[in-house]
Thiamine-phosphate synthase
Amino acid sequence: MTKPFPYKLYLVISQEACCGRDMLWVAEQAVKGGVDLVQIREKNKSYPDFLESSLRLKEILDRYRVPLIVNDNPLVAVNCNAYGVHVGNSDLPPSEIKKKWPDCNMTGYSVEYLEQLSGTEIQFADYLGVSPVFSTPTKTDTVTEWGLEGIAKIKSITDKPLVAIGGINETNAQEVIQAGADCLAVVSAICAADNPTIAAQTLRNLIETA
Ligand code: TZP
Ligand code: MG
């Protein structure tokens, strides 16, 4: 069964991606511009630091009623009362998350291989990350570069909401939506923008007029 997925612009944020600026400030500016879902993705933090950053971020997002998703770590997600968790092939699979954490509202699952679509795990995911759509310096340990054709292909196989990620910016946002993505996820297009509010507004407009 597929739950409604009303989100259009998904910010994936880490302190490192924010070019020396406070991640909490960047997140708040982005939400003011139209980001409607936020994922905290901290690959190098200890558990206590990851949890502390997540708690702080959640406090801000709660003010705007924007849900928080935690990357990789269901324990952090549970302990900061996040809305959900996002996992990939090297993490706890969605079926296990649903078993261990039945109250989890949303489990995102990265699709990196076509074979995943014939496996059993995708049925336990609430959305699929099409990862990456385009190659990106933000994440270099990627497998398939799906491209626009990849989005269309995945769309023809599953009715799960598709979140496109990887190399998405103002120049390609509309074609990614037109190819079948339900939501765009970005790191650098917002975290590295001089003005994260304007960057988010611009992307949001492009999505809505695609
Ligand atoms: N997963 C697939 S690509 C990516 C992640 C986390 C990074 C996307 O970063 P950017 O800067 O939006 O290309
Ligand atoms: Mg992961």
